[in-house]
Amino acid sequence: MWMRRRTVGDFVKAFLAFVVLVVLVLGVPFALATQIGWPLPSGAPSLDWLQREITVGTFLNILTVIVWFAWAQFTACVLVEIKAALSGVGVPGRVPGAGPSQLLARQLVAALLLVGATAASLTPGLAQLGQQHGLEGNQQPAVAAAQQTPGIFAQQEARTGAAAGALAEQASQAAADARGTAEHGDTKFYRIQPPEGRHHDSLWEIAERHLGDGRRYKEIFELNKDRVQPDGSRLSEASLIRPGWIMEMPGDARGGELVEMPDEAPDVSPRVRQQIDAYARTGDQQQQQQQQQQQQQQQERGDRDSGASLPEQRPAPAPAPAGQEQRSFGLPEALLTAPLLAAGLLGALGRRRRQALWQSALGAVGGRRGMEPPTPTGDARDAQDALLVGADPDGVRMLDRALRGLAASLAGESRALPVVYAAWLSHGDLHLQLAQPAGKPPAPWRPGQDQTFWTLARADAERYEDTDTAAPYPGLVSLGTMDDSRLLLNLESVPGIVSLSGAEADRAAVFASVAAELATNGWSDRMTITLVGFGDDLTPLAPNRIRHLDGTEALFETMEAETRQRRGALGAAGHDSVLTGRTGPAQHTRWAPHLVLLAARPSDEDAHRLAELAADAARLGIGYLVGTDSGDLPGAAWEMEITADGRLLAPLLGLELDAQLLPAAQRRAVVDLFAAADPGSGPDGGPGNSPPFLVDISEEGRPAVYARLVGPYEIIGLDAPDPDRGAQLHEALALLLLHREGVHPRVLASALWPRGVTDDVRDALLERLRDWLGTDPDGSPRLRTDATGRLTLARSVVSDLDVLRSLYYEATQGKGADNRAVRGRLLTDALVLVRGPLLADRPGDRYRWLTHEIVDAQLPLLVADTGLALSAFHLEKDRTEKAIEALNAALRTAPADERLWHELLRATHATGDPERLRALAADLTGRGGARGLPPRTEALLDELLPTWREASPAAG
């Protein structure tokens, strides 16, 4: 077992710490007791004692009592620190009034236990006696991670040597296991295969085939990095491997292409066996050096961080060094590294665009209406791409379901919601930090590192389903990351004001991020966000949530009235806080949080008025985040500072975060996206009328590649790809076909690999896609890159959706607008293309990026508009049956479009057959179910068939 060796100095420090502890804990009381005496009196004091003369002896006795008290306090500190270190609790309790004493005790105990833990790690497995390997062993990393979750009150100096020693033991055991595999002769090797056609081997694909997860390619790379290959070269980059090279594989690798050690591989040629044998021998020393370097680095991190860092919540791109902005491909890092904020903004933007489409459809005149939302350009386009890449909707969904599930469980046990100060997200695990102990959490939650932490493992969180319970903690908002964990602060629970100091521009970036996430997050139902002195341009993000005030006078007038109203409402309802009311009968109509963001420092008078308002705010569900030039704001309960390099500091809370920011440029770009999606922003008060890509619908315009997306997915004009990669290539092509304006390479990679992928794997896929699509007769590739670096398709690659849009446009605004015969033919051809919903047979585990699209709303509207236009075309000549046929064809794809049912009722009424109309009314009533029919549909039925309610009493 390899371990980090302790120096003579370490043992000298431990010995001196031991001596000092013995002298202070045992020597001091022994000396006092033998030389001066016990501090306790031998009998009850009398009044004569007060009348005695004060002498030097009196002062000595008083000083002796003080020394006894100091010794007792220090001894208590030592006991508290030893208990915390041995029990594994990262945050020891505080001894009242013992700041310097407890710090000295902590340093002495840490110095002593550091060597003790190292010595214990040499004991051969005594701590593992009676334990089973398997489930319990697999749970240890999760428990360790939970214990190391940074607490909002954790002081940076509370780093004990016990955790460092445990980390050294784990690293040593991992190294021993790795070498034991090689020593027992079961090491596996893989020989890089020569290319087959256009397919080239890669470490990602090797890991996918033999380790079950392509992301484990890094393990193969680390095992083989810089080792000499049979051709004399070395592996230096994961993407640069050559046929004939030999790769040592992790011990759990499986698959027929792997070989064991040469003596056990009779099917391998002697030459290859000799190469593998030589490679295995020369790799031992290199492997040991690499392992020792890795373990030493990990040990050093352990000494600094008091334990292993928590895994990332979601793969996020690292910030590009100065002069290397191309690593980000021009996308803003602020949005790429804010997964919860990006998911909220993306979801809200999709809802806004759908709303614009429906409003445009209902306000259509003469069959002309906006079909396409405007295509973003410039910074807005980059911001949209960054949202698509950075968003983590699964994380938002998990957080929302977990919190609502917790509230439902507590309500079922008739328990009140605990006050939560903060939440930490780490690799899908959720840690809630409570204001005070609240007993045992309901299953599947479990206690965390101490009584003020409740923890939910990711696997347990994924079992939660949607519930109609009110959102319990809507005031949670992301502040940044610390040790790969993301912190969400519950603004409405803070007992007072949260102040934020720093430069004005840096504060504004924090305020904008907080406001944007609160306005669009997916774990709240309702709230009010009042912005004072900034953010008037943020209103388009959520007009129903965001309110902007110009100054503090308006703020005080508003908040004083609301504070009084909330106090009275709580008293009338018999609740002591909004939390106890959120699980009651009025949960959906009351107790929504009100969060105030005041960007500029208030005057001293206003600051005191604000402090008085905030004194009782946490109980009322009101939170205040106030900006200040310095950290001395009156009434501030928690003080934070944002630095010029993007660090969010809160020394008294033990926090040092990489702040989540929304700088001015990105804020403007995001607001532009929402403003462009507003129903009244486009031509004629709606989105654009012209589709972004029109195709030549004449016979001469026959495409070289034709993909059928409306219905089952089919491709005409291309050879079938390799079955192992066919599904991925089809999905990539569908994404490009639905975005003729171009797709950023990182957006494509994020869509196909939602959990992240390396650049070399993405680039390999693009090469395969480019080869599969081929070239046009003039030699130009059908997959191209435009001036902005985005991927686009040649005009010779067309989908049926492109043709459908073009046919409708030509029929209503092009050649068919003034030619009845052409209009009828084009509309008929368009409706024939519709074979069902978009990508009807797509597998459930793919095409998840469609949830961010609005094409699922566009297609039914487009089909409905086509059916309505064709119906009107036939009714002009009294061809009622043809009109009914067109409407029924459109209803198969757009069954929820009320306009189609209205026209179908009118057309059926025009047949003069009351029984047929009555049957259609009964069908409509059955579709309405318990909700009944929409008011406009009922009004139309009253006009066309006054007796319809008699035939359908349930509908009435």
From TrEMBL:
Residue ranges of the Bacterial transcriptional activator domain? Answer: 799-945
Q: Mind listing the UniProt keywords for this protein, alphabetically?
A: Membrane, Transmembrane, Transmembrane helix, Two-component regulatory system
What spans are recorded as compositionally biased (Low complexity)?
A: 285-299
**Biological process GO annotation list?**
phosphorelay signal transduction system
Biased amino acid composition, Basic and acidic residues: 180-189
Q: Which stretches are transmembrane?
A: 57-82, 103-122
Does the UniProt entry include the keyword Membrane? Answer: yes
UniProt region (Disordered), positions on chain: 174-196, 281-326
Name of the protein in its database record:
Bacterial transcriptional activator domain-containing protein
Name the source organism: Streptomyces fumanus
**What high-level taxonomic lineage is stated for the organism?**
Bacteria, Bacillati, Actinomycetota, Actinomycetes, Kitasatosporales
